[in-house]
Amino acid sequence: MTSISSLPSVASTQLQATKNINSRVQAAIARLVGLPGLFPSTDSIASLSAVAQLQAQNAEIRQASGNIVQALSLSQVADSGVSQLQSTIGQLQSLAQQASSGVLNDDNRAQLNAQFQQLVQQIDSLARGSNFNGRSLLDGSLSGEGAISLEQVIAGEGDTSAADLSIADLTSNGLFNGQNLDILSSGSAASALSAINSAAEQIAGVRATIGSFQQVLDVAAANVDSVLANQLASQSVLESADFTSPSADVQQNALNAVVAQTNQLSPVLLQLVG
Questions:
Q1: In the chain, what is the straight-line distance between the N-terminal and C-terminal CA atoms, in Å?
Q2: Which helix (H) or strand (E) holds 76?
Q3: What is the number of other CB atoms lying within 10 angstroms of the CB of residue 105?
Q4: Which domain, by its residues, includes 127?
Q5: Quick check: 189 and 181 in contact, CB under 8 A?
Q6: CB 104 within 8 A of CB 133
Q7: 1-33 confidence digits (pLDDT tens)
Q8: Is 161 within a domain?
Q9: Total domain count for the chain?
Q10: Please, are residues 263 and 4 in contact by the beta-carbon 8 Å criterion?
Q11: What's the average model confidence in pLDDT over 142-163?
Q12: Is 123 helix (H, G, I), strand (E, B) or coil?
């Protein structure tokens, strides 16, 4: 332990250490503000190479972040279209339930069927009209090989057999398994209602799939943002100044000063704080 008699030596050492640290910090600040000529440069070819690699990686990460934003927008457009389909299916259910009532006559059912067929056409219009940047979303184009995986979103490649977003054909042909539904009789109305109920369950499942995909993208976006922040911090350190070493020296310098001051305390005080 440093004794009181050695305090002059300690003070001299601390003073010299402080001067050295100040010199290094000044050099670092000069490099930080773009004036490396004021102090000797310690940059190396390895550091410059690392900076170039980080810049390239950061560009790729930014592209991945942009891809995630695009995928989120796509999913939102798809969800909006499916929501409208869900509403239309609800209207079809209501008409089929009315037509299955035994109190209606053929004319009543014919009027209801006219509305029913218009809604079926509306389903096809919605399913075929929902697209993002020219890519159809609800007509089966996003199923099979057209499905989307997180790996595709981020890196442009991936296994679609384990896709995070796959939407089957939601046209009337896909929803009703190729059946031409009508509600012209109580029997056909009952059959139509059964098919419509199945379609409603399918659409609810699609909305759940889209919601899960959006959660996956949200997590991926947070991770990508974190990686980019770390990469930029690393690049900044290499491009500018590394204050880590000077900071550590300052902390050690302060610790040594505390030790020197402690040696000046009386034994009684040391016992009190010990």
A1: 15
A2: helix 45-99
A3: 7
A4: 47-237
A5: no
A6: no
A7: 444 444 455 455 555 555 544 444 444 444 433
A8: yes
A9: 1
A10: yes
A11: 80
A12: helix
